[in-house]
Amino acid sequence: MTVTSSKFPQLYFRLALSIGFFLPVADRLGLLGPAGQHAVSWGNWENFAAYTNTLMPFLSRGTASFMGVLATICEVSIALAFLIGFKVKAAAIGSFLLTLIFAICMFIFSDPKVPFYYSVFADSAGSLLLACVPAYYWSLDNYLSKKRRR
Q1: 81 is in which domain, residue-wise?
Q2: How confident is the model over 116-127, as a mean pLDDT?
């Protein structure tokens, strides 16, 4: 296998996206340390909920907080799916949509540069590209597919 085949790049990207979804969840749950500590964006749920409300000012605070809960559940589910390679295409489509919505909200309600600083549009585009891959090597999907063919 060479680096130019799609086997290694898709695995690398799946794992990078997985970590990229897990770490912000850990941050908003306070698992990376308190707010203000180096490399900690929120440090707790309250700070994350307030940030969510700034990205969705058209929603009430309670509704924006609910959307934050929903996004967190989606992020954990997508991260797990990418990590173990289960339902990768569905996870990639979910990742594309979630990150696209996030990027658009950041662009409109924060600062147009912010989603580019954090590569949110790139993550969204990469997720869409990952959804177009015909087979996911080194994945539970691939293992189960081979098992069904036997």
Answers
A1: 7-149
A2: 97
Q: Is residue 140 part of a domain?
A: yes
If one counts every other C-beta atom within 10 angstroms of the C-beta of residue 97, the result is: 14
Angle between the 88-109 and 7-28 helix axes, to the nearest 10 degrees? Answer: 50
Is 1 domain-assigned?
A: no
Closest CA to 100 of 77, 125, 74, 69: 125
Query: Looking at the chain, how many residues does it have?
Result: 150
The amino acid present at 51, given as its one-letter code, is Y
CA quadruple 17, 18, 22, 23: dihedral, nearest 10: -50
Q: Is residue 2 part of a domain?
A: no
Look up the pTM and report it. 0.91
Two tokens, residue 68? 């934050």
What the block records as the tokens of 56 is 């969705």
Sorted by sequence, the CB contacts under 8 Å of residue 6 that are 6+ apart come out as 133, 137
Residue 139 covered by a domain: yes
pLDDT, tens only, 42-91: 999 999 999 999 999 999 999 999 999 999 999 999 999 999 999 999 99
Residue 110, pLDDT > 60, answer yes
Number of folded domains that form the chain: 1
